[in-house]
User: What shape does this take?
Amino acid sequence: MARSTTSMKKKSYTRYSDTYRQEALALADRIGVAAAARELGIHASQLYQWRSKAQLQQDTSERERSLAEENARLKRQLAEANEELAITKKAAVYFAKSLK
Assistant: This one.
């Protein structure tokens, strides 16, 4: 069997800006995904995909923020422990000298 050698058209992809995506998602929240997709002339699956990516990004940023807060708390705790240790060492040296 021979394959036909017709020229294949290259698919052109439209890249939408982040602001367009955000506005499209806001519209989808107001009037529904199907209606927003019809109004914008895009597939509803595209809006669902944008929504899931935005949710993932938001979850990631929340996770990073909580990790940063925990990191700051642990640094404060370590600094306090180091300060207490330094005080204890100084006291031990002082009392060791007074015993001699």
In short: The helical segments are 18-31, 33-40, 44-99. The mean pLDDT is 87. The radius of gyration is 31 Å. Residues 44-99 form the longest helix (56 residues).
